[in-house]
């Protein structure tokens, strides 16, 4: 990517779709230092003091001037943000693969071509899985998030509603990383200057959202995904080529969404309407408002669980490519508003592409009679999905900058 590219306009204010932005909308942690014996303090006494304690403790296990948690998506908001990939690594650090040679990674072989641009330094980070190393700060945060969801969101039989996936391979196909999320073939976020490619068809995931389609297609309707992700950035106080994300996804049926609502049986999830700044064309306003309320409430509870009550927070309307409407939560930390998460209602087209495929329909027909098939299709068509950073229906992006 050309380093002189103009910064992306302030899309969170204008709500226009920026041509040079790509959003992962996930919790993003950032650390490469192994740590043992670190424990969280109880975060209930003084919210702002507890927030500072967590930041101070985590900063001790990171290099000076390297942020523990990376900015959520580089979706621009004024001069503070740049579009994803606007700070590419210089060619001095890149190592293109020799066409015809083979790259060995995680027990598999990948033929190299003119798209191969992995560096030895980045390759050395693959497979470390810091978030699965006991007592590492990333592991501790992951466990606190899991604890919260396991206790707060329980199924009808008393089992956790959300399943957790923290061992998915960081090597994905370009289809998983882009096409499954409706990213156009000519979108700037696909450029070599923004990503680490093994070859033209495989890459190191740029976000954990690369696994959403597969998990939906497998029949999951509530899950958390944790993983290391890779983007070509120069190292500074806010950027590092390898960082970590935790995101969550949940689907809602009509019964789940309207349960307990007066005259809920008469309400609809979907309609043939028009798209506006507040909703998608396929969602009813009633469904949208209920989902938005649940989404924000879920995230607010999670943030309170991590940092304590009493934080001064605010919600900001924003734009992300595969959620609409989209929001960000900001926390007033030491007099500055700090973006701490991004979330939104997932584009219904993405949900349908994962659920209503020819392959899944064939699978249903093979398992039951026509009546069961019709009921199953109806149930799938009445589902709506929201994505919020690391929580019930969306994705969280922690954005704590530790100097």
TrEMBL record:
CC per GO annotation: mitochondrion
UniProt GO molecular function: ATP binding; phenylalanine-tRNA ligase activity; tRNA binding
InterPro entries according to UniProt: aa-tRNA-synth_II/BPL/LPL (IPR045864), Phenylalanyl-tRNA_Synthase (IPR002319)
Statement: the UniProt record of this protein carries the keyword NAD: no
GO biological process: phenylalanyl-tRNA aminoacylation
Superkingdom of origin: Eukaryota
Name this polypeptide is given: Phenylalanine--tRNA ligase, mitochondrial isoform X8
Source organism per UniProt: Heterocephalus glaber (Naked mole rat)
Gene giving rise to this polypeptide: Fars2
């Amino acid at each position: 990517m050309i380093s002189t590219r103009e910064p992306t306009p302030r899309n969170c204010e204008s709500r226009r779709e920026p041509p040079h932005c790509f959003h992962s909308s996930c919790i993003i942690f950032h650390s490469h230092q192994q740590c043992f014996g670190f424990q969280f303090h109880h975060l209930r006494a003084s919210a702002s003091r507890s927030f500072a304690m967590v930041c101070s403790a985590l900063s001790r296990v990171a290099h000076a001037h390297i942020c523990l948690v990376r900015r959520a998506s580089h979706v621009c908001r004024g001069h503070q943000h740049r579009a994803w990939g606007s700070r590419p690594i210089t060619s001095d650090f890149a190592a293109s693969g020799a066409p015809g040679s083979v790259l060995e990674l995680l027990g598999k072989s990948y033929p190299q071509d003119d798209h191969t641009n992995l560096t030895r330094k980045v390759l050395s980070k693959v497979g470390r899985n810091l978030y699965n190393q006991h007592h590492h700060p990333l592991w501790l945060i992951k466990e606190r998030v899991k604890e919260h969801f396991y206790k707060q969101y329980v199924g009808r039989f008393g089992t956790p509603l959300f399943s957790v996936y923290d061992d998915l391979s960081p090597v994905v196909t370009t289809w998983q990383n882009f096409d499954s999320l409706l990213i156009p073939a000519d979108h700037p976020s696909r450029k070599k200057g923004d990503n680490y490619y093994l070859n033209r068809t495989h890459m190191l995931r740029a976000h954990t959202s690369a696994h959403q389609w597969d998990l939906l297609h497998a029949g999951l309707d509530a899950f958390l995904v944790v993983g290391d992700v890779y983007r070509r950035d120069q190292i500074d106080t806010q950027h590092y080529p390898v960082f970590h994300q935790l995101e969550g996804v949940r689907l809602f049926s009509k019964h789940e969404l309207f349960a307990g609502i007066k005259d809920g049986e008469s309400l609809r999830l979907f309609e043939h309407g028009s798209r506006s700044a507040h909703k998608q064309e396929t969602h009813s306003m009633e469904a949208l408002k209920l989902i938005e309320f649940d989404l924000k409430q879920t995230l607010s509870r999670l943030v309170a669980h991590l940092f304590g009550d009493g934080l001064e927070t605010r919600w900001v309307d924003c734009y992300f490519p595969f959620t609409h409407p989209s929001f960000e939560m900001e926390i007033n930390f030491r007099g500055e508003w700090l973006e701490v998460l991004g979330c939104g209602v997932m584009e219904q087209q993405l949900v349908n592409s994962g659920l209503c495929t020819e392959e899944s329909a064939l699978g249903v027909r093979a398992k039951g009679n026509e009546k069961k098939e019709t009921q199953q299709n109806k149930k799938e068509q009445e589902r709506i999905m929201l994505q919020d950073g690391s929580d019930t229906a969306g994705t969280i992006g922690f954005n704590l900058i530790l100097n």
